[in-house]
Specification:
- Chain A: Keywords: Membrane, Transmembrane, Transmembrane helix.
- The complex is a heterotrimer.
- Chain B folds into two domains: about 5-205, Rossmann fold; about 220-285, Alpha-Beta Plaits (2-Layer Sandwich), CATH 3.30.70.
- In chain B, a hairpin with a 2-residue loop joins strand 12 (about 240-245) and strand 13 (about 250-255).
- Helices cover about 35% and strands about 30% of the residues of chain B.
- In chain B, the strands form three sheets. Chain B has a six-stranded mixed beta sheet, with helices on both faces. A four-stranded antiparallel beta sheet of chain B has the order 2-1-4-5, with helices on one face.
- By secondary structure, chain B is an alpha/beta fold.
- In chain B, helix 3 packs antiparallel against helix 4 (about 130-145).
- The two termini of chain B are about 40 Å apart.
- A two-stranded antiparallel sheet of chain C has the order 1-2.
- The longest helix of chain C has 27 residues, at about 80-105.
- Chain C is elongated, with a radius of gyration of 18 Å.
- Classes of the chains: A mainly alpha, B alpha/beta, C mainly alpha.
Chain lengths: ~230, ~290, ~120
């Protein structure tokens, strides 16, 4: 635990800079959006600012396997320490961003004038707001962790032959399943179980199982990765 | 004496090049070892293997008799790399904080004392350090870890002679009070000759020699004199280098000389001198069979 | 006590010699404790094992003895033992070398004796 805490701390040191860059990009985008809006050029539907900032969660599993792994191991950590540490880091940031999104969502729906501009919020899209405040948090938390575990796996496996194999399989499976109607439906159903399941308990169970499996695969690759 | 680290027939290939071939070493508890070799001899590869950073193609690595499994990091080892890949944006003190949890015997008082001795500013960012200061951060972690086995890969790289001397002094002082196994790769044999007890010399991926430092000092001589006399004196000696200047020959040998033999040499008007270790190392590692 | 070591002979022999010197010049008396191996290591920046080797040599020769848990002490009769040993090696260590050199520069043994007696340099 001591080690994992120190890893979360070490990560924050690294992520600070990326977050700063990310926020700058978001702010710039925001400014441009406003300018276009005011000049009437752009009338697309805005996405909740909090949602946009939460996209940073997807950047975290890109940075850690690529940048953090070797550096942490040079300090004396084992691969196991690394794995535990990054999972705690993901948990930590998933909590932070889930809370942030909730707070922003309340703010947005209560104080922002929706008539000025239509906002889309992932909470509304996926109906994550149907089980109260706790539900909002849990839906987000487990969904974020699931997506993170998937990205983490994709970034972790790139040095291994089987990882390259996984890329090839995915690059075939994804377009094919999108192209064929019945398969597309299957994917839709699968995602509905994992990301917008009407039953919060079911969603937590299913997404946790998949998350654990994905993290296990990451671990499998980490054990075989040379520093 | 307990064996703390043993490798058996360790083999590592990079593509078709054999980086390491059948490395067998045995490190005992509470001794200081030197791993010598020229650049590219395989020292770093070897240290990367025993630290579990990379994986061998064949052979075993055992810590305290327990096999190091693939993907494991040895708990009893602190490995200080030649080029530390630390987080550039982190402060020196942050790095020590990140490293500390991995070492059971970590000593914060000692770590802080080392920062002062090495004149390292704890609040300076790692990115802003000079090459020598980078090395010192690694050294600080290696020493403060007080790990049962500490491996340093070229620890004094980028340090000026004064700092190098300081490092060796602190190392030997701390070792005297907190004995542990130290395994240090270097190509500066003279500098470590007083503190290292046993050395392994590595050449093109193999261990070429392993011996006590004292034995090596006792067995390396320059014999000089008339060409013919040198020749006859050295008939059954292990010659590792030879130069001739006109009728004068200077030969380097790696062999024992008894008192009688030394007297005989004196009678033959040959001069016997002790050879500086750095000379021994360069002749031995490069020449080998002694033929010009 | 010397401040550092030279390359002429192994360091552990030099350590033994250093302690012997201190015994014959009465820096250490009988039953005095000699410097610990740790102190040797720290003072001279050498591997403690080297100091142990030097000290053990003197223990074997009966010049030092060990008090368990306390350290190394100067044994009874140490001075005599050291003097005898040094005298025995005096010929091979010093005299013979001198005679060899003398031979090279065409001085006879008698010349050398003469030189020693008169304490003068030859022309």
């Amino acid at each position: 635990m001591n080690r994992s805490l120190s890893i979360v701390k070490a990560n924050s040191n690294i992520l600070k800079f990326s977050f700063f860059v990310f926020i700058l990009a978001v702010a710039l985008q925001g400014v441009l959006d406003t300018v276009f809006n005011m000049s009437g050029i752009n009338d697309t539907i805005g996405i909740s600012v909090a949602n946009v900032i939460t996209v940073f969660l997807l950047v975290v599993p890109l940075i850690l396997p690529l940048y953090f792994f070797r550096r942490l191991l040079s300090l004396g950590a084992s691969r196991k320490d690394y794995m535990n540490g990054i999972i705690w880091t993901y948990v930590f940031y998933s909590i932070i961003f889930s809370l942030f999104n909730m707070i922003w969502y309340f703010f947005e729906s209560n104080y922002l004038n929706a008539s000025v501009r239509e906002y889309f919020n992932i909470m509304a899209i996926f109906n994550w707001d149907r089980s109260g405040v706790v539900g909002m948090f849990l839906y987000q938390f487990f969904s974020y962790l699931l997506v993170i575990s998937f990205i983490n796996l994709l970034v972790t496996c790139y040095k291994h032959v089987l990882g390259i194999g996984l890329y090839i399989v995915l690059s075939i499976v994804i377009p094919v399943s999108m192209a064929i109607g019945t398969l597309r439906e299957g994917v839709g159903i699968g995602l509905s179980y994992l990301l917008y399941n009407p039953s919060i308990v079911m969603q937590i169970v299913f997404s946790s199982i998949v998350t654990i499996i994905l993290f296990y695969f990451s671990w499998w690759f980490i054990k075989r990765r040379e520093v | 004496m307990q064996v703390v680290l043993e490798t058996k027939n360790l083999l590592k290939n990079y593509g078709s090049t054999e980086a390491l071939k059948n490395i067998n070493i045995q490190l005992e508890e509470n001794r200081i070892y030197g791993l010598l070799g020229r650049n590219g001899a395989g020292k770093t590869t070897f240290l990367n293997l025993i630290s579990g950073s990379i994986f061998q193609d064949e052979g075993d690595i055992q810590f305290y008799g327990n096999q190091l499994k693939r993907g494991e990091t040895p708990k009893s080892l602190c490995y200080v790399k030649e080029k530390n890949l630390f987080f550039g944006g982190a402060k020196v003190i942050d790095l020590l904080e990140y490293a500390a949890p991995y070492y059971e015997n970590w000593d914060w008082d000692f770590a802080n004392k080392l920062l002062k001795l090495f004149e390292l500013d704890p609040n300076k960012k790692f990115r802003k350090l000079s090459r020598g200061m980078e090395s010192l951060v690694g050294i600080t972690i290696g020493l403060a870890s007080r790990a049962p086995i500490t491996a340093f890969d070229e620890p004094v790289l980028g340090l000026d002679p004064l700092m190098r001397e300081k490092f060796y002094n602190i190392l030997v002082e701390d070792f005297a009070e907190h004995p542990r196994t130290i395994f240090m790769s270097t190509h500066l044999i003279d500098e470590v000759s007083k503190i290292v007890e046993k050395i392994y010399i590595m050449e093109s991926g193999s261990i070429k020699l392993s011996d006590d430092m004292e034995n090596i000092k006792n067995k390396s001589y320059f014999i000089s004199g008339k060409n013919t006399e040198v020749e006859s004196f050295l008939q059954d000696k292990n010659m590792i280098h030879r130069e001739t200047h006109g009728s004068i020959a200077i030969a380097a040998i790696f062999d024992t000389l008894t008192i009688e033999e030394k007297e005989k040499a004196a009678a033959m008007e040959l001069t016997v001198d002790n050879m500086p270790l750095q000379k021994f190392f360069s002749y031995y590692a490069i020449g080998g069979d002694g033929n010009e | 006590m010397k401040a550092s070591f030279d390359d002429r002979q192994p360091i552990f022999l030099q350590i033994a010699e250093m302690i012997e010197d201190d015994i014959i010049n009465h820096t250490y008396e009988i039953d005095d404790q000699v410097m610990s191996t740790t102190a040797f290591a720290k003072t001279f920046q050498i591997n403690p094992a080297t100091a142990v080797k030097g000290i053990n040599l003197l223990v074997e020769e009966g010049i030092l003895f060990k008090r368990r848990g306390l350290g190394m002490f100067v044994a009874e009769g140490a001075v005599e033992k050291i003097l005898k040993k040094r005298r025995d090696s005096f010929y091979s260590q010093y005299v013979q070398k001198m005679l060899n050199e003398a031979k090279k520069i065409n001085l006879t043994t008698d010349d050398v004796i003469e030189l020693i007696k008169n304490g003068k340099r030859s022309e």
